[in-house]
Write a structure and sequence with these properties.
alpha/beta; 614 residues; seven-stranded mixed β-sheet; six-stranded antiparallel β-sheet; single chain; FAD/NAD(P)-binding domain; 16 helices
């Protein structure tokens, strides 16, 4: 038997907030050892039989690269046909059980089950970070980012998918994709939702967290006072305040690995799953027909052959990287690296993301402060481990508890602002180098706080991704270009004006909550609360939501930036598709995990229909 442990590098300070730890996942490693010892170490390991590398000349019908949000779905659907041999490759290790604890989500971003990069500076964002470089993170384990994310199940707006169709992508309107959202979904709260828009028979569990903290209640009440309806944002109307739907059940994360692969992995003999196996190059013959790939396992390179198709589902950072390593991408860039260009396509372009920022804080009164002792922390960990249905702060993730969607301008046809919040303990950023690198250091005049964050969900800024000139197989060079189009700042400023009015609500006044008016260090030359101050915050304390999309853009043949067609086939190369969030021509107005699962379903359906009579 072999196992892959998680290297948890972040910690919580003594006397820190249990809710803060549930929000950020900063749990003392020494507390874990004290409480669980070797037994806990065993609990965070996922055991599987020893995996042998693929032999040379091993042949499959389909090879799926990347066991993330889309790739797990694709592998599941293709292996339903017992006559098809399917290989699923994942560059990272097995998904450890520690990922099942919602309250530990943020600590996973700096563990060995995440790809951790930094953004290239553009002089307009991330200015308070060393070198102007924000963190760039995605999942590197079975389940991909669905194993380390905040678990939010949010589809976006009907208008998003209709716009994809209007751009020339037939079959991608809202009415076209809704059945594929519903196919995967097993919604456990359907009695409180609009059932026309939800599924209850799919593999992917969706529910609400079993624990909601007091700051979430306060923020929800404030939004309701301001006239927001409490309703299903995945239903007919997105504009709302809502207790968030998440890919969790009974207080535990349900990744796409948990939902789509674990139940079938050892039952379907035609499905082979290989972890720690990074795809290096897609093999393409002289007729531009894909026939397999080369991948690395345990320091050695192996070849696997595909009789039908190779499906790239490695995500918006790694799908374009693999295509370019294989000679599919911008010709000039490939030639610079000495890679023969097989097909000149705009791979790596059209990169965009939902951007937000830190720096605005709502102080909490002593009555709802959540600081606890080390002993209480130990008890919380013990209680979570012992509960069959997990409850309490560790069964939730404060960032994800509530979300609001609204318009920065009432004349808009759809919401363009997503509002969420975090719990913050200033001691964390002072005492913990991980947090100091991710979050700004707030003034010491308060202890516990809510950080309201506003994310602009329709950004105009576009960046790009390139191979690393010094080492093409190393980390890609990522230029997200946040606020490259400075009009993206306008909705954020407008939304902040609105947010400040919440201090007058009864929910804030009765709870003793108020905005902290000490300027952040990088913006101390501006008057707190003004538009210029908020622009400074956005440019200085920029934060990604890790919703990277667009780098293998879907579009009609006449679109010079398109990489794949509406059936997700790579232009100019046969036997090759890209099926993940990188195909989004324009980002959706919401989190990208649920859309990536849908894209997996939609792409698998295209493949099944292509080969059903062959």
């Amino acid at each position: 038997m072999i196992w892959q442990p998680v290297n948890l590098t972040a910690v919580c300070p003594t006397n820190s907030s249990i809710t803060a730890c549930s929000s950020f996942g900063f749990i003392y490693l020494n507390l874990i050892v004290q409480l669980f010892g070797d037994s806990f170490e065993n609990k965070i390991k996922r055991h599987y039989p020893s995996i042998e590398p693929v032999r040379d000349n091993e042949e499959y019908d389909f090879i799926v690269v990347g066991a993330g949000s889309a790739g797990c779905v694709v592998a599941n659907r293709l292996s339903e046909n017992p006559n098809w041999k399917v290989l699923l490759l994942e560059a990272g290790p097995e998904q450890p059980d520690v990922t099942l604890v919602p309250g530990l989500s943020s600590v996973l971003a700096t563990s060995n089950i995440a790809w951790s990069y930094t953004a290239e500076p553009n002089g307009k964002s991330c200015l308070a970070y060393p070198g102007g470089r924000c963190p760039i993170v995605s999942g590197k384990t079975m389940g991909g980012s669905s194993s380390i994310n905040t678990m939010i199940y949010m589809r976006g707006n009907k208008a998003d998918y209709d716009s994809w169709a209007e751009l020339g992508n037939k079959g991608w309107s809202y009415e076209d994709v809704l059945p594929f959202f519903k196919k995967s979904e097993n919604n456990k709260d359907i009695e409180r939702l609009e059932d026309r828009y939800h599924g209850v028979t799919g593999e992917q569990n969706v529910s609400r967290f079993t624990y909601v903290d007091e700051p979430s209640v306060i923020m929800t009440k404030a939004f309701i006072e301001k006239g927001f309806p409490l309703r299903d944002p995945n239903g007919l109307y997105q504009e709302s305040i809502a207790l968030t739907q998440v890919t969790a059940f009974s207080g535990k994360r349900v990744s796409t690995n948990t939902a789509f692969i674990q139940p079938i992995r050892h039952k379907r003999k035609n499905l082979t799953v290989k972890v720690n196996s990074e795809a290096l190059k897609i093999l393409i013959d002289e007729n531009k027909k894909v026939y397999g790939l080369i991948y690395s396992y345990n320091g050695q390179n192996f070849t696997a052959f595909a009789k039908k198709e190779v499906i790239v589902s490695a995500g918006s950072l790694h799908s374009p990287k693999l295509l370019m390593l294989s000679g599919i991408g911008p010709k000039d860039h490939l030639e610079q690296l000495g890679i023969p260009a097989v097909q000149d396509l705009a791979v790596g372009e059209n990169l965009h993301d939902h951007v937000t920022f830190s720096g605005v804080a709502v102080a909490l009164s002593d009555e709802i402060a959540t600081s606890i002792s080390e002993f209480e922390m130990l008890n919380a960990l013990r209680e979570y481990d012992e509960m069959e249905i997990k409850r309490g702060p560790l069964s939730s993730f404060g960032v994800s508890n509530i979300m609001a969607f609204y318009k920065s301008d009432p004349n808009l046809t759809a919401p363009d602002i997503a509002q969420f919040r975090e719990i913050y303990d200033w001691k964390q950023s002072l005492d913990d180098p991980l947090t100091a690198g991710r979050l700004p250091i707030f003034p010491k005049s308060f202890y516990n706080a809510v950080i309201p964050r506003t994310a602009y969900t329709s950004p105009k800024s576009r960046g790009y991704l390139l191979l690393n000139v010094s080492n093409p197989y190393g980390p890609p060079i990522v230029y997200p270009n946040y606020f490259g189009d400075e009009s993206d700042l306008i909705p954020i400023v407008q939304s902040m004006r609105y947010l400040l009015s919440f201090e007058k609500t009864e929910a804030f006044r009765s709870s003793g909550s108020y905005f902290v008016r000490e300027p952040m260090p990088a913006c101390k030359d501006y008057v707190w609360g003004t538009d210029d101050y908020h622009i400074c915050l956005a440019k200085s304390y920029t934060t990604t939501t890790s919703h990277y999309v667009g780098t293998c853009k879907m579009g009609p043949k006449w679109d010079k930036k398109a990489v794949v067609d509406n059936n997700l086939r790579v232009y100019g190369v046969s036997g090759l598709r890209v099926i993940d969030a990188s195909i989004m021509p324009v980002i959706v107005r919401g989190n990208t995990n649920a859309p990536a699962i849908m894209i997996g379903e939609r792409g698998a359906d295209f493949i099944l229909k292509s080969w059903q009579h062959k």
